[in-house]
Design goal:
The protein has 11 helices and 16 strands. It has helices at residues 2-20, 34-38, 79-91, 111-115, 124-138, 197-212, 218-222, 266-290, 302-306, 330-343, 350-377; strands at 23-29, 45-47, 54-58, 64-68, 71-73, 99-105, 117-118, 121-122, 143-155, 158-161, 177-178, 184-185, 192-194, 226-237, 243-252, 316-323. The strands form 4 sheets. Strands 1, 5, 6, 9, 10, 13, 14, 15 and 16 form a 9-stranded mixed β-sheet that branches. A 3-stranded antiparallel β-sheet has the order 2-3-4, with helices on one face. The chain binds adenosine-5'-diphosphate and magnesium ion (MG). Adenosine-5'-diphosphate (ADP) is lined by residues 30-31, 105, 107-113, 223, 322. This is Kinesin-like protein. Residues 22-346 form the Kinesin motor domain.
Length: 378
């Protein structure tokens, strides 16, 4: 009887999680920088003093627009605060979940700061691996874990391995292949086994260096390509021998800023078209998953195709939408926030609202039932 109750409870919990959704969006606003302060830029992002999931933008016509996300980080929130909210999502890779996290936003809003960070302010990538090592140590009595890291770049719809030794050599072309189990693989991609934090720091550094080879300015190229860090976890349950393999992808996306067709031509125009195409493909895929519509258009870009087995189903997705607080950027800021709202499936349309209300009451009932059950068992 107890087992029956337990499995019923587990089913309910899963349903609750399903309703809450496994797609989350965090917004992070960086501080005004020195140049902006000197130029007298206004801070156009306002936060509610008591709510940590809302913000308001004062647009150029002084009207206010409100946005809601799963969490909103303010300029004063540090890397530790950001990681505290991110940790439960990324560490679920150890329990066999596939996880994707993305940093989206205009160039200069802190995507790389959030993901990579710097030696004084390490970002999500490093903190995550550190935590995975700590947890695998902690669980070593019941689980054995092996961690592998790959790092690659998608530029103009071409995949480049960032961990190939001597990346000055022209690297062989990488393609996405479908495996017999129906998952996606990139044959030939380097997978480096990592055993501790030291290994990781070295690898991430060499990967970042490879990224800038061939470009006049590292920063320029990095804003026009997607950088993907993949952690593969192989787990073995030492009690029942069950084996798991799961992926965690941490993605620093290309800058989302719109480039005026008049300003650019040739190579630069082609680049921006590739970026637009892949970012909107990503938006379409996540929005389709969030609204639970039938067809998910994974095949529209290399990025979404490669991540196909890690997006959707019971996979977890987190998007950081990075914004600037400056009045000079308000147009791009509103674009990014609109993109993120759509991704979260919280666009307010009449049909959608109705569905949300009924889902909400179903969710409330479940919580009541769980509370009741809890009391009964006590
Ligand atoms: P992106 O990758 O989106 O182009 P960067 O991560 O390179 O942007 O950030 C641009 C600049 O702003 C960098 O100098 C970075 O250190 C700084 N910065 C970004 N976010 C923050 C933050 N939350 N706190 C302090 N400095 C930040
Ligand atoms: Mg960057």
């Amino acid at each position: 009887k107890y087992l029956q109750e337990l499995s019923e409870r587990k089913r309910l919990y899963n349903e609750v999680i399903e309703l809450k959704g496994n797609i989350k969006v965090f917004c992070r606003c960086r501080p005004l920088n020195q140049v902006e302060i000197t130029n007298g830029s206004n801070h156009v992002v306002e936060f509610d003093s008591s709510l940590d999931n809302e913000l308001q933008i004062i647009s150029s016509d002084s009207s206010k627009k409100q946005f809601k996300f799963d969490h909103v980080f303010r300029p004063e929130d540090n890397q530790e605060a950001v990681f505290a909210q991110t940790k439960p999502i990324v560490t679920s890779v150890l329990d066999g979940y596939n996880v994707c996290i993305f940093a989206y936003g205009q160039t200069g809003t802190g995507k790389t700061f959030t993901m990579e960070g710097n030696p004084e302010n390490r970002g999500v990538n490093y903190r995550t691996l550190d935590e995975l090592f700590r947890l695998s140590q902690e669980r070593s009595g019941v689980m054995r874990y092996e961690l592998f890291v790959s790092m690659l770049e998608v530029y103009n719809e071409k995949i480049k391995d960032l961990l190939v030794e001597n990346s000055n050599q022209p690297t062989k072309k990488l393609e996405i292949k479908q495996t017999a189990e129906g998952t996606q693989e990139v044959p030939g991609l380097v997978e480096a086994q990592v055993n501790g934090t030291e290994d990781v720091w070295e690898l991430l550094k060499s990967g970042s260096r490879a990224r800038s080879v061939g470009s006049t300015s590292a920063n320029e190229l990095s804003s026009r390509s997607h950088c993907l860090l993949r952690v593969t976890v192989r787990g073995e349950n030492l009690i029942d021998g069950q084996k798991t393999r799961s992926h965690l992808w941490m993605v620093d996306l290309a800058g989302s800023e719109r480039v005026g067709k008049i300003d650019v031509e040739g190579e630069r125009l082609k680049e921006s078209q590739f970026i637009n195409k892949s970012l909107s493909a990503l938006g379409d895929v996540i929005a389709a998953l969030a609204s639970k519509t039938g067809h998910i258009p994974y095949r529209n870009s290399k990025l979404t195709h490669m991540l196909q087995s890690s997006l959707g189903g019971d996979c977890k997705t987190l998007m950081f939408v990075q914004i600037s607080p400056s009045s000079a950027d308000v147009g791009e800021t509103i674009c990014s926030l609109n993109f993120a709202s759509r991704v979260r499936g919280i666009e307010s349309g009449p049909a959608r609202k109705q569905a949300d209300l009924s889902e909400l009451s179903k969710y409330k009932q479940m919580v009541e039932k769980l509370k009741h059950d809890e009391k009964e068992t006590k």
